[in-house]
Amino acid sequence: MNNLRRFILKYHFVILFILLEVISILLLANSQRFHRNRLVNTTNDAVGKVYEWSSEVSNYFRLNNANKQLAEENAMLRQQLSVVYDTTTCTYDITKGDTLFKYIPAQVVNNSTNQVNNYIIINKGSLDGIERDMSVISTDGIVGVVTDVSRHYASIMSLLHSKCVVGVRIKQSQELASLKWETNNYRYGMVEDIPTHILLEKGDTILTSSHSYIFPEDLMVGTVEEFYPTAVDALNKAKVRFATDFATLRHVYVIKDLHKPELDSLKARLQ
Amino acid sequence: MNKTVLQIIRFVVLVLLQVLVINHIRLGGYVHPYIYLVFVMLLPFSTPKWQLLVLGFALGLTVDLFTGTPGLHAGATTLMAFSRPSIIKLISGNQKFENITEPNIGQLGGLWFFRYTLFLVLIHHFALFFLESFSFRLFGQVLLRILLSVPVSIFLIMMIMFIFKSEKKRE
Closest approach of chain B CAs to the CA of A74, in angstroms? Predict the structure, then answer.
């Protein structure tokens, strides 16, 4: 024991050195295996504070540069806005810049909401690249499907159509269902095939599902207005308030699905 | 001023200078100067050896906290602190430091101090850059970083020393 103590006292410098180096290398090896070491994480706040102070000070010196950068960014954003800004319709087309879908802006020239089968006529036709079965949306939500195309115009079967059924998805539960118009009020549609275990509340969001083949996924359809749980039927019903106000509809976008030919040919091969 | 307080201030100032200023200097990606080792270099000659190690380890670990590399600077700086007594012996020969309490360029001369800095920076940078790559695979690249960083570190450290020296004379 005495020998050991003398040994440690004599070589304490080397022993301590080796100990500290081993600790260092263990820390280093650990930090390379895991993303960050626990030791670093616990003191992160203090380190972050120091960096924050430093940046608060150094930011003053960079104000001039930051101003210049912000001015440049402003100019760039304005330019991008001018691309998005539609001078003929005086609206910002926020949907531009998508790669999977091409958005063709159009204006509604005729619209009805009080028929059993309502159609919308827009001022874009085959010359503008409109084709049958393209989906149509407004900035608020989905509108309908292109059913007929002329050179300069297209007619759209709106959601307010007795034959129109849209595959939808309940946002919260991811449950699939289908939406129909109730043919009496232009503001409301009906989802009739909600599984019994799914209970909805007023305000729940209904989106398009990927199963519809017509609309891109996750577009706004509407919100639940009233929920009708049923004991007789096997399925619940919900009254849905359309996000799109068909009575005041002015500007719409026709969506060209760039993958649709591919999808169609695949479906044709399956049949 | 109290010696301990001076050391603490030196510690804090050097670490902050390193992590907030020097670390943001990027000269071509290969030059990474480190000046925080000045703290270990300037510890008094009378500092117990074990204190050298502990202080070196603590200094390195503090820098590690800022750079998010636990153990890297700690290991390199501990090695440097470990070799400091031998380096002093090696470059001083029979020279005696009777009136000198800590390494300083004014009393020991520029040449002595340059050699002192050169050896310690070399040891530190070798250990640091090899620990950083954690293997000898990138040997050439690591060597290039050492070769390019060492002169810059020495230059910066010598500059700091001259600044300290002029302060001493004014007192």
Answer: 28
